[in-house]
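Researcher: Structure prediction, please.
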Amino acid sequence: MLSDAHGHCTLGGVSLAELRAVHHTFGAWWPELGADSRPASLPAGVYDRLRSDSRALLRQRAEAALASPASPADPAPLLLAFPALDHPWLATSPGAGVFLKHFLWLPHSPSLLAWAQRLAAAENAAEAARQHAWMRVVFQKVAVEDELPEALACLRAVYGGDDAGRRALLTAEADMLDACGLTELAAWGRTLGLHEPARTEAGIAIPVRRPAPTAAAPDITVLVPSYCHAPYIEAALESVLAQTYAAFRILVVDDRSTDATVARAGTVNDPRVRIDVNDTNLGLGDSVLSALERIDTPYVALLNSDDLFHPRRLELCRAALEHSPALQVVATGLVTVDSSGCRLTPGNVRRLFDGRHVADWMQWHAGTGRVEPDADLLAALLERNFLVTSSNLVARTGFLRRSAESLRGLKYCLDWQVFLEAAATGALAYLPDALLGYRLHASNTVWFDDERGAAYALEVNRVLAHTLRRAGARHS
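Model: Predicted structure follows.
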C-alpha cells in the first residue's frame, strides 16, 4: 500500500518526525474512511491495510533510528508534497485544520516550511491568506519558528490594515483553531503581536520651536553626528529647537550620508543650526573627535540623527553639571520610540511589524535598562550599557577632548567608553527621568546586523580591556 509498482516506499526517506505526523494523519481519517462510513469507491480492507503498513514503517524507522543515530553526513530527508491550494481538503478552514493538524503541532517541519514558502511567494498570496484562516495559521507558524521571509512579508500585507480588520481575521482563526482542538496554537499570533493595537501615543512630545535668546551667548553645542537618517533628521533637530534652555547652538556633522539626510537637515531653517559634511566617512568616534576641534562652548550634548530630546533635557543636564564641578558627564533615563515616534514598550511591541530583533531588544531592556540613582554606576555599566546610546551624553567639552585617545577609531561603543571612563572616577551622574527618546528601528542598532556583529564584538572587548587596565593602574 505504501510502495509503488516497483516496490519502492518513498515515505521511507521522510524524516521520522514527519513520518509520525503522516501516520497520525492517516489515523484521523477513520471517521470518513473506516468501518460503516467507508465510501463505496474504497475497497474493503484497503484503509486498514494503509494504516497497518504505515504503523509497520513507523516502527521500522524508529528502531533503525535507535540502533544508529543520525550523523551530520546522512543525506537530507525527502520532503512531503502537500495538496494544491484548490484541493477539496483545503476548501474550508476547519477541514484544512484537521488535515494539517499533526504538522501544525510538529516543530520546524521542513516539508510544511517548503510548502508555506511556495504559497507565500505566489502572486496572489496575500489575497488567498485573507480568505483562508488555515493559511494564515500556517504562515504564523513558519514566521515564528523559522523566520520565513516570504511568510513574514505576506502576513504584514494581510494584517497591515486597521485594527477592526485585524480583529476580524484573528476571530476567524480562533474559531478555526477551536473547531480543530488547536486553541494553543493561537500563541503564534500573540508572539507576532497581532493582538496589539496600532501604537498612537507619542514617545516624546515636541512643543513648538522656542526662539533663541537675544542676549545670552551659547554655552552648549548640540553635536548631531548624522548618517543616512533622512526620515528622522528633521524631527531630531526640532526636538533640540524646542528646548526650555535655549542658549545653545547645533552642529550637524554628516559622515557622508548616501541618502537625503543633508538636504533634509537643510530644510530646518534656524540660525542656530550649522551643517558640516566630512570629507570622507570617518565612523562615529572619529567624526565626533573631528567636530570637537570646532566646538568652543564649555558643554557639548550628543544627539544621533534619529533620536529625540525631551524639551527639558538640556536644562536639567546642564543644571547638574553647573551644580557639581566634579561631574564631567550626565546621562538620563530614556523612552524608546518607534520609526513613527510613537512610544514603544515591551507590552506593545509587535514582532511582525517591528521585527524580531526589536522585540527581543525591548525584552532585554525591560529587565536591565534601569538602575537606582544611588547605584554603583561603574559596576552596572561593566555588566551592561544600560545608558544605551551616545545620544545620552551631555558632557564638559574638555573631558571629551582629554578622552580623545581612548575614543579614536570607535564606531559602535563610543558612548560606553565615555560612560565607563567618567564612572571610574566618580564623574558620571545619572538622572533617572526619561529625557531622551531612543528611536528603535531595524537599521539603527549594530547588533541587529550580522555583518557588523564581529566588529562590534571586537570594540566591546577593546573598551572593556581599556577600562580594566585603567582600573588596575589606579588600584596599583
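Model: The radius of gyration is 30 Å.
Researcher: Thanks, that helps.
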